[in-house]
Amino acid sequence: MADDASSSSGITGNTVENSINQDELIMKQQREIEKEISETIPLVGEIEELQTLEKEYNEDPIYLLKVKDLSSKYKSIRRTRPDGNCFFRAFSYAYLERLLTDKQEYDKFYEIAKNSKDILVALGFSQFTVEDFYETFMEVIQRVGEHAGSTPDLIETVRMELHDKFNKQGYSDYIVVYLRLITSGQLQTDQEFYQNFIEGPRTVTEFCRQEVEPMYKESDHIHIIALSNALKVCVRVKYMDRGEGSQVIAHDFPEGSTPLVHLLYRPGHYDILYA
Amino acid sequence: MRKPREPKSNRRRRNKMAEIVEKYNTKCPGVKRLMREAIELAEATEEYCARPLEDNLFEWHFTVQGPKGTEFEGGIYHGRILLPKEYPMHPPHIILLTPNGRFEINKKICLSISGHHPETWQPSWSIRTALLALIAFMPTPAEGTIGSLDYTPAERKILAKKSTNWSCSQCGEIKLLLSSTAAKPLTEEEQSVLNQIAFKGEDDQSSKPPPPTEEETPEPELQVLESTEPVTGFLDQLTEILVALLVGAIGIFIYRRWNAFYAEAETEL
């Protein structure tokens, strides 16, 4: 008897199912691309000379001019995996690496990081899941702090450990999740301000749930503004695209302070730059 | 100051946890997280309960109470939760085992934010979020989504009544699994999240292999285990055959022209 009911409903559901199958196929293809990327590109790569970029654009005069401009200010680049998490991964890697040689900045950041969990829990995020990410995040930060500003040998040891951790999905993704939560927390704390940046009818909370908190969602200006505000870290992003001119335009978040993290943006992707 | 005596079942469970700790690599984030969740969900509540299988932390069994004031009221529904090795980066899958008239049984369903894809799952959600969302989603219209059933309220009520006698081969009579303690109240965040979550079934062809039954360290390379897609695989093969045929045809064509040309040249000579 019950089975009859289900078969009759199957007919009306047919068109809906077709469009879902279409969706499924697209998602399948996307998953394959993602799989290929994850098999060939490390989460965070080794440091490379900026000239490798020149080779990449050998037959592209517009980009070649821009790479030339870039190489007047930067010597090297560190690539990250283009999986939608690249901004968060590049940012945290570059910043923690920087903290290794800057004890004063480290101490400032440690306080902010330590208090971040309570802010998130007060906003209503589930305590035990937030704690799970927070603990891993703090474990990595504390390790950096043990030798921040110490001898070059010790710094190098910790730097290599850091590189290793950033290439372990367990650590690396946990750091990304936690930074996404901090970003979401900042957006929600200062809703009125950030609402202006959101296009369309979405509320800040909806935006956070759809574009900030889920993994693999790409970052836009608003993510960068929120994260740099939450952690009080200035980020410089060099925007390299097909736009006119031979200059690569820089944006500082927030404007007017000294950037500690330098990132290269090419449409859809962030890498780390070194002077 | 006297501490209330801990129920025996709790102590037994704690020992179980110790065994699990020994068995799994606790450095693996999924394992660490699931152990936390097991502790968080150790006490059964009136609305839901869930716990990992004794021999596999990546498969849980759960029981939920049908939402009150709906045709599922009085029903008790049991099912499996399959956790991907990437959990909590990827969402859990839920399989209902008790006939309920809302979801097909023995079919993987997956939660997503309404109208969006499962990628919108958030790592800060948990098994509790999934169960609460499942309960909240039961009374919503099926609308032909994969894995959904459109039984009439009367049929669902009959199934709800029957469900109390249902028993799981691993967990026993399911009506004994829930307790009379009310669950932890919803946080504001949870409440607003629940309104947005939807469930939909997975296409059979795209269903992934079950989560690891043996201990596995989820290294990125392991993603090779992802299912091979029969549909695209078939299309690829078809294209290959077509290309081969085309190349063959062109080859024959050229060969014939060439022959014809030489034949002509020879006759001219």
UniProtKB/TrEMBL annotation, chain A:
- EC numbers on record: 3.4.19.12
Q: What class of enzyme is it?
A: hydrolase
This protein's GO CC annotations: nucleus
Site entry (Interacts with free ubiquitin), positions: I225, Y239, D241, Y265, Y270
Q: Does the keyword Magnesium apply?
A: no
- What does the entry give for GO biological process? protein K48-linked deubiquitination; proteolysis
The protein's UniProt keywords, in alphabetical order, are: Hydrolase, Protease, Thiol protease, Ubl conjugation pathway
List the InterPro entries. Answer: OTU_dom, Otubain, Papain-like_cys_pep_sf, Peptidase_C65_otubain, Peptidase_C65_otubain_sub1, Peptidase_C65_otubain_sub2
Give the source's domain of life in one word.
Eukaryota
PANTHER family noted in UniProt: UBIQUITIN THIOESTERASE OTUBAIN-LIKE, UBIQUITIN THIOLESTERASE PROTEIN OTUB
Describe the family membership recorded for this protein in Swiss-Prot or TrEMBL.
Belongs to the peptidase C65 family.
The name under which this protein is listed is Ubiquitin thioesterase
User: Which species is listed as the source?
Assistant: Bombyx mandarina
The organism's taxonomy opens as: Eukaryota, Metazoa, Ecdysozoa, Arthropoda, Hexapoda
UniProtKB/TrEMBL annotation, chain B:
Query: Where does the record place the region Disordered?
Result: 201-221
State the SUPFAM superfamilies in the record.
UBC-like (SSF54495)
What's the protein called, per UniProt? Answer: Ubiquitin-conjugating enzyme E2 J1-like protein
Ranges of residues in domain UBC core: 29-181
Q: Which InterPro entries match?
A: Ub_conjugating_enzyme, UBC, UBQ-conjugating_enzyme/RWD
